[in-house]
Task: structure prediction
Amino acid sequence: MDEPHFVFEAMLSGWADQQSSRGLAEQTISSRERVIRRFEEFASRYPWEWLPGDLEDYTTQAKSRQQPATPSTIRGYHSIIRLFCDYLTDTRYRWTVDCEERFGTAPQQICHEWNTLAHLVDYEGRPQRRALTYDELEQLFAVADHRVETIL
Result:
């Protein structure tokens, strides 16, 4: 039996159960699991061995690809990894105790304010795709109403 792999799979299964009990959609749960699996593969170590530097390296790699990840995508990765680490370090789930007993080290929160992307503006996407402001919506509907009146 590959004990580290077994424990990692149990962590993912437990986290999926916890999210499901909170009413999250299966698609959300499975997409979060994929992010964690990609991060674990990138780091080449299990969650109880992860360090803040692993997240920083992962972020740098995501930003330096031929098609760099957008800030909102990177923030999403950070959020998912932070949530997973929160689950692992929550004493109600005993992962820290279990890993300490099995492997001599415990999971830690690797996401902090110095290595994660802060959300600074309401919209970060391409300007052509931004949401309309309240005033712009008012103007749009005023024009639409006027056109309806003209047609009738």
Q: What stands out?
A: Helices lie at 3-21, 26-43, 52-63, 71-89, 95-103, 134-151. DSSP finds six helices and no strands in the chain. The radius of gyration is 21 Å.
